[in-house]
Amino acid sequence: MGSGRRRAPPDDDVGHIPERHTTMDFTLTDEQELLLSSLDELLERECPESYIAELDLHHESATSFRKALHEAGFMSLGFPEEYGGTPCDAVTLVLLAERVCRQGLNNGFGLELLQAMDILEFGSEAQKQEILGLLANGRVPFALGFTEPGAGSDNSAMTTSAVHHDGLVTFNGTKTLITAALQSKYLLVMAKNPDTEDPRKAISMYLVPMDAPGVTTNRLEKILWYTQDSCEIFLDDVTLPEEDCLVGVKGNGFKQLMRNFEMERLVIAATCLGQAQCAFDDAAAYAAQRVQFGQPIGNFQLTQLKLTDMAIKLENMRNFVYKTAWMLDRGLPLKSQGALCKRYCAMSGFEVADDALQIFGGVGVTVGARISRLWRDLRGHRFGGGTDEIMVHIAGRQIVKDHS
Amino acid sequence: MKIVVAYKWAPNPQDLEVRADGTVDASRGKPAVSEYDPVAFELARRLADETGGEVVGLTVGAAAIDTPLARKAALSRGLDRLVLVADDALVGADSTRLAAVLAAAVRAIGDVDLVLAGDSSVDVAEGQVPLTTAAELGWLGLGRVTAVSPATDGLVVERDTPAGVAVLTVRTPVVLAATADAVVPRVAGMKDILAAAKKPVEVLALAALDVPAPAVTLATLGTAKPSGGDRQAVLFDGADPAAAASQLVGALRSAGVL
Fold first, then answer.
1. Which of A71, A255, B136, B251 has a 20 to 30 Å separation from B222 between CA atoms?
2. Whole-model pTM?
3. Which structural domain, as residue segments, surrounds residue B239?
4. Which pLDDT score, from 0 to 100, does residue A22 have?
């Protein structure tokens, strides 16, 4: 899908459709085809369903698969070349995220890259080397410490403090519902300088080791996303040298964090698309072989109606994700596009999984049925990375503004 | 050391359809490097890295095997350069003919020490091409190869035979056909794929290779699906394991298996 390419103009215009009408091209580039086929080889070898089911059962992270992804060069896509990276456009990135998640692995690819890009862009040389080393070993380098008991999307209500004194920073506060922190070496803490009155300039970004004195955690058991832990994190007088922990510019934390938010929403949308496709494929195959009243249930129109509506939603999701990625690659202003895409894909992805579960019936919720895991995991994306409702808040304001 | 990897650009067997008359329709098969060949690429790359050699890819077939995607797919798997013979005169060519063309291309490349290939193609799967190529070249040819490493005056080759693992020293030039599980091939990453577009490709004209006309040509008289066997699907009740085992042994004896 040649998002970054423009076709050469024809030699003469006679008989040719003008270029602006020919650039909507859904064909994958050779490079995308080959990369996806490499990924397929890797998935078949390193990430079969039995592996994912085992991780889910034991609530473990996909470390060995991530390591294999790194060895094959997938974990440095989009990084600057001086850090061993290779160029990668947004369309290619979402194609890969979709493909990994189509295997049935939740949050299988992409989010770690975006997080690491924050550090590669804003971090010190020592921070960059540390994070790249962790990625190379298949580790989750850090968790994002943003949400608090009294603050989430409302970041102005954040209370975790970072007091700078004598070249040190002392943190106090509580973060909650932090994903993958227990398996991460660091926490990327967003904290406020209590002395700064302007709330936009109060928040800074810090990299805090999870084993620093004063950091304690409380694991939160949840009913989904078993391959990523969740916990509360308490910061009690955690004191670290400023030069080690501050990421980027003091007071620019929120701006730095927002830098990759659009891409993050897009990767989440691609994740939903991949998992929903997996659910659809399972349900369609089951409908073709499950016999009731002497024939496969896929022969019944009520089942066909479900499958048809699921297929329409998948097609819409795919178009939405690819077009949004294409807009990013073209440098077009996204405005509300990212929020609309995330909201639509999270909601539709879950609807597809819900209908898939309905087609399976009771067997779908037995332990070991993949559809049950997809249904659980897709539900989480309706609030992970911003709720369906906050996406309305973001997009709605923009829509009204555009029409005022 | 100059190593040639002879591979096939073949349709994916998952896309093949068996017609009612038993013939196979490969027209919808998405082509790729035949899945038994990546082991040869990997063995060649490792050997070349160890000896400071060059790895040249070689494939022959119909004109359709030469596309930008096909070139990059092969070149991203660790080749230094690629040589192709793509000519519609080779549509439907049998394995003897393909081997003759491969041998002629190997001679054209010149100074080749080793030809490595997968031991069979994923679509035709006759397993004849590597050793027939060796015969055409007048070189030693060995199948069932699981490992190859450099030696002072040639190569040390391991072969997986029914009698066990055989380790041999062979002089070059030689043709080796590797088993599908000889080594785990690396997958091509973005760097390899991007670099593939910049590697040299040479297209050899079939006519210029002066391949002698085959003395014998094959004529297929018919094709049929393999027999499914006479399966009886006998089930034993496993509630009493000892009794079930005894019933199983009895049934196998009466069938003449034991």
1. B136
2. 0.87
3. 228-258
4. 57
Residue A338 is predicted with a pLDDT of 94
- Percentage of chain A with pLDDT > 70? 95
CATH H superfamily, domain A258-402 = Butyryl-CoA Dehydrogenase, subunit A, domain 3 (1.20.140.10)
Task: Sheet containing B54-61: give its strands across.
Answer: B164-170, B154-161, B140-151, B174-178, B114-118, B2-6, B54-61, B81-86, B201-203
Token pair belonging to A32: 């995308």
Q: Is residue B223 part of a domain?
A: no
Q: Token pair of B173, please?
A: 């030039």
Nearest chain B residue to A84 by CA: give it.
B191
Do B104 and B70 share a domain, yes or no?
yes
The ranges assigned to domains in chain A are: 26-141, 142-247, 258-402
Alpha carbon separation from B86 to A45, A100, A223, A345, B73 (Å, rounded): 32, 35, 57, 45, 16
Residues B88 and B159 in one domain: yes
Q: Among A38, A40, A65, pick the best mutation site for testing chain B contact (most B Cβ within 10 A).
A: A38
Tell me which residue in B187, B190, B196 faces A86 most closely, judged by beta carbons.
B190
Best CA proximity match to B207, nearest among B128, B95, B108, B137: B108
Interface test with A, best of B192, B193, B194 (most A CBs within 10 A): B193
Mean pLDDT on B90-95: 91
Residues of chain B with C-beta less than 8 angstroms from the C-beta of A71:
186
Question: Omega before B31 cis (within 30°)?
Answer: no
**CATH architecture under which domain A26-141 falls:** Orthogonal Bundle (1.10)
Give A77's contacts in chain B (Cβ within 8 Å).
Answer: 190
CB atoms A33 and B192 under 8 Å: no
ipTM of the complex model: 0.83
Q: What pLDDT was estimated at residue A4?
A: 46
Is CATH 3.30.450.20 the classification given to domain A142-247?
no
Same domain, B82 and B187: yes
**Residues of chain B with C-beta less than 8 angstroms from the C-beta of A74:** 189-190
Q: Which two tokens stand for residue A280?
A: 């659809």
Average pLDDT over residues B159-170: 94
